[in-house]
Amino acid sequence: MRLFNYLVERKDLIQIPVYPFEREWTHFTSMTYIDEFSELHGKDVPVREALAGQVPSAGVGTCFSRRAVTALLADGDGIAFDVQSLTEDYDIGFRLKEKGMTEIFVRFPVVDEAKEREQRKFLQHARTSNMICVREYFPDTFSTAVRQKSRWIIGIVFQGFKTHKWTSSLTLNYFLWRDRKGAISNFVSFLAMLVMIQLLLLLAYESLWPDAWHFLSIFSGSAWLMTLLWLNFGLMINRIVQRVIFVTGYYGLTQGLLSVLRLFWGNLINFMANWRALKQVLQHGDPRRVAWDKTTHDFPSVTGDTRSLRPLGQILLENQVITGRTTR
Fold first, then answer.
1. Residue 288, exposed/middle/buried by CB under 10 A (0-12, 13-18, 19+)?
2. Do 102 and 263 contact (CB within 8 A), yes or no?
3. Which residue windows are transmembrane per the record (predicted)?
4. Could you read off the pLDDT of 107-166 as tens digits, one per residue?
């Protein structure tokens, strides 16, 4: 709150990073979120703010100035948020930008150097890992993650394309294109992953068995194709290295290296989410008619027990909000 209060007189939208809580490394579904948010809020959004001056709200960790809230209320006849949007947080960032209001993405660390030297993980960055940020658990099952991400895709890609037209700013249009290309890239990435796995299996088969059948190579006699594939391979390695760096900065080297393995699982989730989003839009005809699909969240426990799973009445009794006589 002190950080927001310091900035709110000069900025109309203030967003702080989101860094999901870790689970056990075997929880691949939930852990894909730490990979994506580490890169998104460590690199993508800061670059977006610096080049375009536009910051998408994350739905949590966002502060609005009185001027911004008043303008949004005037737009919606007393309702600040677009109730038909499945990603009203993303929508608000563009609405405020169109009104000429200032937006900022704040990465502000609070570091106790003496304490940090004892607790820091290997290659974990002191400033990054002590950022003022939002911590929360994200979906831990495949189906829940697919449902949540399909809602994001419908809101950002399909509803966003209908609501927010291309602008006169080439820089902002570039980031709009990056937001919307997921409708295609999620399909292409998954298919490319399948092709790569098939080629690796064929290579292993031909290398390990002396009498193996040698399949006709798709690369023979195509110098331009080989050049293109090596260029693409180099770009892929560059992207993987960037992800490892940004995940390591907050979570340490172990999670940074595991993020490489989680790429495949994340691609599958994004592919299924994209397929589900496309199916829902086609079924309803209009992306703005798709119903909200609420995500169930897990909540952290301060004491390590299952406080979040206990009955509400038990929690209220323990904190003396109600008495035993009240419940009778």
1. middle
2. no
3. 187-206, 212-232, 244-265
4. 999 877 666 566 778 888 888 888 999 999 999 999 999 999 999 999 999 999 988 889
